[in-house]
Amino acid sequence: MEQNLIEKLLLTDKVKECNEIIKKILENPPEDVSKRISKELDIITKRFKNDEQYEITNINTTLMLLIIAYELDLEDTFDSILNYSSLDNMSIDLDLGFFVLEDFSDIIIRLGRNRGEKIIEFVKNGELDKRMRLAYSVGILNLALNGFYELEKAKLFYKELLINKEFEELKEVCKFSLKELERAKNITFNDEFESLFYVLEDLERDDEYDYSDELDVADYYENLSLENDSDKHWREGINQEEWDYFEFNEPRAVEKIGRNDSCPCGSGKKYKKCCGK
User: Fold this and answer.
1) Mean of the per-residue pLDDT values for the chain?
2) Which of 12, 81, 244, 247 pairs with 169 at a CA distance of 20 to 30 A?
3) Alpha helices in 72-112 (DSSP H)
4) Which residues have CB under 8 Å from 88's CB, separation 6+?
5) For residue 46, how many other CB atoms are within 10 A of its CB?
6) Are the beta carbons of 41 and 68 closer than 8 angstroms?
7) Strand, coil or helix: what is 93?
8) Dihedral (C-alpha) 173, 175, 180, 185: value to the nearest 10 degrees?
9) Inter-axis angle of helices 171-183 and 151-162, nearest 10
10) Whole-prediction pTM value?
11) Three-state secondary structure call for residue 260
12) Segment 111-119 mean pLDDT
């Protein structure tokens, strides 16, 4: 396998090309793939924590690194994932978006399946962002229900959280988890994991979709509603002089920017991946 595939992945902003690179990595992973992914995750975490610049083109880098680790079952990367998970909510939202809510639990249950005690210690960290604390709390339930963590230890964990006022936001999750654990019987070891590659395929389809027509229609109706609302400016407190300006001075021409056009800010990225988000 080419030695620079991971570096090439980090510097490519075309999702289709990224998916092709990832498939090559999955087919023939380098021996040091765990170390390399952990290193990149640590760099990303440091960048966010210290508000540093990170020389990278692909805004989906973290997501792609996580999915490579998941698909190759790289448990050695879990410490770096935990470290990344300690970032504040805004940083994680910017980096992973809806993936945290929809699919991050799959990362926890596969790569953290032998790290139940470490996850519990992580959840009890008072500085942890509430949403990540929730994700890892649910992770303990999933680990227990799939035979990766002892049921009684999981129950004790949720009971401890219930009586601790610092974890009030986890109250409902704890109650639900305890009910599920009480109901669970004859838990068997389940080592079968479904692929997460569909997440990247969805990104590829989104990247190829042309949103410009939808935006044109939306702009048309928005402008039409403003034209028909002659009292809007008065209601917003604009005085007569300002009204005269809006009425008799034609607005300057504004060039429309398509979702797949280059961003006018000069970043080199597509508009939808940059200022058009």
Assistant:
1) 80
2) 81
3) 78-85, 89-96, 99-102, 104-111
4) 48, 129
5) 13
6) no
7) helix
8) 130
9) 150
10) 0.71
11) coil
12) 94
